[in-house]
TrEMBL record, chain A:
<dbReference type="Pfam" id="PF01739">
    <property type="entry name" value="CheR"/>
</dbReference>
<dbReference type="InterPro" id="IPR022642">
    <property type="entry name" value="CheR_C"/>
</dbReference>
<feature type="domain" description="CheR-type methyltransferase">
    <location>
        <begin position="21"/>
        <end position="262"/>
    </location>
</feature>
<dbReference type="Pfam" id="PF03705">
    <property type="entry name" value="CheR_N"/>
</dbReference>
<protein>
    <submittedName>
        <fullName>Protein-glutamate O-methyltransferase CheR</fullName>
    </submittedName>
</protein>
<dbReference type="InterPro" id="IPR000780">
    <property type="entry name" value="CheR_MeTrfase"/>
</dbReference>
<dbReference type="InterPro" id="IPR050903">
    <property type="entry name" value="Bact_Chemotaxis_MeTrfase"/>
</dbReference>
<dbReference type="InterPro" id="IPR029063">
    <property type="entry name" value="SAM-dependent_MTases_sf"/>
</dbReference>
<dbReference type="InterPro" id="IPR022641">
    <property type="entry name" value="CheR_N"/>
</dbReference>
TrEMBL record, chain B:
<keyword id="KW-1133">Transmembrane helix</keyword>
<keyword id="KW-0902">Two-component regulatory system</keyword>
<dbReference type="InterPro" id="IPR036097">
    <property type="entry name" value="HisK_dim/P_sf"/>
</dbReference>
<protein>
    <recommendedName>
        <fullName>histidine kinase</fullName>
        <ecNumber>2.7.13.3</ecNumber>
    </recommendedName>
</protein>
<keyword id="KW-1003">Cell membrane</keyword>
<dbReference type="InterPro" id="IPR003594">
    <property type="entry name" value="HATPase_dom"/>
</dbReference>
<keyword id="KW-0418">Kinase</keyword>
<dbReference type="InterPro" id="IPR005467">
    <property type="entry name" value="His_kinase_dom"/>
</dbReference>
<keyword id="KW-0175">Coiled coil</keyword>
Amino acid sequence: MKDLIWNNDDSQETNITETIEMELLLEGLYRVSGFDFRQYMRSSIQRRVQNRMQIEQIQTITGVLEKVLHDPMFMNKLLNDFSINVTEMFRNPEFFKVFREKVIPELKELPEIRIWHAGCATGEEVYSMAILMEEEGLIHKAKLYATDMNETVLNKARSGILPLSKMRTYTKNYMSSGGTRAFSEYYTTDGHFAYLKPSLLKQISFAQHNLVTDQSFNEFHVILCRNVLIYFTTALQNQVYELFYESLSTKGFLGLGDKESIKFAECADQYEEFAELVKIYRKK
Amino acid sequence: MMNNFRFGIRQKIITGYIVIIVCLIAAILAVTKQLDNMQKERNFIIQHDFAVRDLTSNIEKDLLKMESGQRGYIVTGDENYLQPYNEAREQWGKDFNALSKLLSDYPDQLKEITAINENIKEWIEVAGEPSIKLKQQNDTAGIRDFFQKDPGKTEIEQTLQQFDSFRNNEKELVQQRADNLNNQNQYLEIGLFSLLAFVILASIALAWIISGSIIKTIKAVVETIRAMTTGGNLSSRIHVKSNDEIRDLGFATNELLDSFEERDWLQRSVTEVVSKNQGISSLENLAEIFLSATAQITESSYGAFYIKEGKEKNVRFVKKGAFADTAGDVGRDSFALGQGLIGQCALEKRVQVINKIEGDYTLISSGLGETKPRSILIAPIVHEEEIIAVIELASLAEYTSQHLAFIEKVLETFGLTINRVIDRIEIARLLSESQAMTEELQAQSEELQTQSEELQMQSEELQMINEQLESRSQDAEEKSKALEIAKKELEEKAKQLETGSKYKSEFLANMSHELRTPLNSILILSEMLAENSSKSLSEEELEFARVIHSSGQDLLNLINDILDFSKVEAGKLEIMLSEVNLSEFPSSLERNFTHIADQKGLNFTINIAPDVPTILQTDEKRFQQIIKNLLSNAFKFTEKGSVSVRLNKVPADVTYAGIDYWLEVSIKDTGIGIPKEKHELIFQAFQQGDGATIRKYGGTGLGLSISSEFAKLLGGRLQLQSEEGKGSTFKLLIPSISDESVSVQTFAGASAEVATALEQSAKVIEDAPATAKIAPAVPETEQPIMVDQEKVFYGKTVLITDDDNRNIFALKTALEQKGMNVLNANNGMECLDVLETNKNIDLILMDIMMPEMDGYETMQRIRGLNEFTDLPIIALTAKAMKNDREKCLEAGASDYISKPLKLEQLFSVMHVWMTK
Ligand SMILES: C[S@@+](CC[C@H](N)C(=O)[O-])C[C@H]1O[C@@H](n2cnc3c(N)ncnc32)[C@H](O)[C@@H]1O
């Protein structure tokens, strides 16, 4: 706080330099890797870069840029840094509860249900959806698409392997999400990991997809994009909302993260609040 | 002039009354005059008549008086009798004169009384006077003589007679006159009644006319007013033709209507504008809507709307909207306080209308720029005594007072509206800011979590590295020495191995051969037995024979495989290139496999792409062997669906010396499939320790390894695409070799290239075994996993609470096998007892339906004890009803599984709840 108030000329100058450096870094990263972080929240990117700089003992952002341009390994590390993969099965159980109680009845009659998990990270969310669909007897006609820009996490997601240590939390989440069976029916374990039942896994198509640069690839009845847009600036959020709008069927559902809201987006009036409390919106 | 002549209601009514009164007076005068006449007449009748009668009877009386006086005197000689005679003689003359005067107008009667007069005079002369004289002379003889003769007697009698007739005449005359009067009276009566009737009629007529003229106009007014109130049409007006108070009323009403209409217009216009202003969330929008509405109402052609921005010295009014009925931008973009007309207005805080626009009315003097309108209206919009906006309107006509009134009225509340919109925008901005902040927070917390996970990982890594480093530095010296020795040993070993493995393979090859001979005889004999030609064997014995035979067959296959394999290993296998006729390929496969397909009810198809050449240059025997191997595998693991073979020519982007083309043989089944992590495994012989895997996926365990080796020998490769439950596709990629002199080994690299090229072109994402990264990990982890699994459970204590002893027994056995200590309780009470004495229990398996104290209650009690709040309790529910599960959770279960228990699931759950 103090720093902000006693902003002397010197620090202002460095701030400007840093801004320029950061822009150059992101531009460079985009040009070499094709991953576009230029419209991500600067504050978040800043922290990730700072973090990397500390670990690698790099003094300036330009130094980071240099390594990005010349060291592919480092570039990958930085890309990984930028993709925050925090996720859980049945994360915010209330969401899944409401989804089960209110959204599912709306989908039941469809001949095929296409669901897109945009920014699926290590897959826990889409696993949860698969379980929910299984329990609702809809898995046979559900097509679950899970995409992320990060190939590494996608591979993890494809494997269906979960850390054993997290299963307790997941069990609790599952229960409070209104699960109708025993959670243990969906996995087997060995001493290290839990393995999602292959029959569930095989219902899911995983693919690499970047929300910033890639196009719509199907029409979906449900799109879940939870805790991804928090990393985007408003402008980019609007752009992605546009993409979702294109990719949603009429009366399709859009699920956002707990702390996200469509209320202030440009497209807010194209959606009705279906379950505002758990951020489920419905295309008009 | 006529117009100015007022004939008011009062005049009308008074005129009416006057007419009637005049009539009445005339009538009364006429009647009185008539009455007067009649009165006179009557009086005359009465007086004249009476006088005549009086006089007549007086004369008569005098006459009689004279006669009786004469006689009295004569008889008595008394002088006293002479007095009445004298008096009467004197009197009657007078009376006669009066009478003749009275009757002077009536000659008939005059004649009569004259006759009477003659007679009386006669009597006096003849009788009266002479007789008296006789007496006076005492002439008694004369007197006797006189009486004898009695002169005058006739005169008296005649006179009396005459009197009678006169009186009768007179009576008749009076009667006549009375009749006359009566007649007159009757006429008067008739006249009077007719006059009355006339007056009545006249008044009625007048009343009718006057009231009619009043009512007609009132009715017209009422009619118009009623039409307006029912029709709601305020624009019609009352028209009155008469010039009276009603007309005044009409005019007054019309005036009222005018003002009413005006007020109504004002009200409606204001409401219209105000209602349009509702629910708008941007200033631009508001400005646009407000301007176009006001412009329309005030008939303005141009309008501009400025909002105050900035504070104190930096206040500027910035254009937020404009309106023009011609296209184009109107007004300046902004102005400062006091700048130009409009700025002046903003400074003065009042509405201004400028009708005389100077010739040089230009950009500076107004926000509206160069147009030259007739009239300009500039109005400030005030909120809480402060100007927050200004509007400027320009019209080609002049603004009326009504327009002004409207503007003033509408602006009264517009300040509030603007303020509300500004507030709303501000609130929206704040809200979205707070949303952004919330998101930022969430992002930060996720980052933090990631970071802490990373840190955790790093610290673990560090710890590991540290540990390793420590031990390494200790060992370092030893190791370097040992390394030296090991190196030497290794070198030696390598040599030994080379020869050793060669020997081993040779030995195996020989051994297998030696083994086959006795095995063959076993096979043949057991087959004979199974045929039971002598019919001497029982069913059971027959079954034994069959088992011996099939086991023997398996053994033989295995030995064959081993033989092949050892040959490959020992490098003993030679390839014999020949021409394989691919057109015969389908029929030979069909011969071998259709019956299995039929037996299992599977679809079996063979497809050869049209561009595949008929001739394939390769080792036919090995080629066939690979295909058969793969096919028998496919059939073995497919229970339903299909098995298909497809031959494709690989499109050749690259050419290799000595190779004609590449053939791809795909063998696809819809069987159980192979999980990814096992893909590499099944191609490996001997190395894998997990017998189960072999049993499950590899048949004899060697078939695939051999096929793969053969494929390599033929210069190609064998690949697998499969997922558990989705079937498998084996792809054999082999070259047609045209030049025998080229070593097959050199094709190995080529086949890899072709394979990757193929993959890319087909965009096959599945992991080919050759590229599977996790492959090396599998055989390593496979073994230790078993140990780890036990480790989690080993030595841990489980408390089984169940009233069904069979359950306890079954569970106990299973759990004890994992090295666990198992305690048991038959009901909730016992469970609590056990917990009291055993503090080192790691997990409780809790049945729900138990006598005495059921599972729910028991769990609640356990959770009530402080020391056991975190103890994992797994509820075993008989029926997985939703209600059940919720009750379990409420009661404090960590997890639940439903009965009948699946051991694998139970162990999974126990893993979850027991790993720290
Ligand atoms: C915090 S995770 C959210 C995971 C999951 N949806 C949940 O809520 O549990 C965010 C994920 O979004 C992915 N992501 C970020 N930017 C992306 C982009 N432009 N396109 C696709 N995925 C993106 C990241 O790789 C990361 O896996």
